[in-house]
Amino acid sequence: MSSPQVQAILQPHLDRLLSKRTHPKTLCPSEVARALSPEELKAAEASEWRSLMPTIREMLWELRSREEVEILQRGELISEGTRLEDLKGPIRARRCV
Is the pTM of this model over 0.90? Predict the structure, then answer.
């Protein structure tokens, strides 16, 4: 699990990017990580944006559990019984309608 400090750095970027996308447009979690400034990466103790991807996926999964976002893979919604740790490969997210 990621630290609250790292999540606090990521959350504003995640919120901003999700709010810019109207349904059915999606975002790639890497967009959130790549939006961080060098100072934010340092504060998150991340040597590069890729190291933040597991945390961003966890944050999106939490939003999914609260029915705030939908998670897609290969253009299809992830089924309800799917666990985050079972997902392999790229995902995309969008706000629920």
Answer: yes
